Amino acid sequence: MRALMYLGTRQMEMQEVEEPGVTPGHAVLKVGAASICGSDLHGFLGKSAKRVPPLIMGHEFTGEVVDLGRGAEGLSIGDRVTINPILSCGRCDECLRGRTSICPHRTVIGIEHPGAFANYVSVPEKSCFRLPDHVGDLEGSMVESLSNALHIFDRSLHGFIRSVAVIGAGTQGLLALQVARHIGATRIAVTDRVPSRLALATSMGATHAIDVRADDPVEAVFDMTDGQGVDLAVEAVGHTATQEQAVRMLRQGGEAVLLGLGAEAPMAIDGVAMVNRELVVRGSYAYTSVDFAYSLELISTGKIDVASMVVERDLEQGPGIFTKLVDDPGDLIKVALVPGS
Question: Which numeric CATH code is attached to 2-142+306-338?
Answer without folding.
Answer: 3.90.180.10
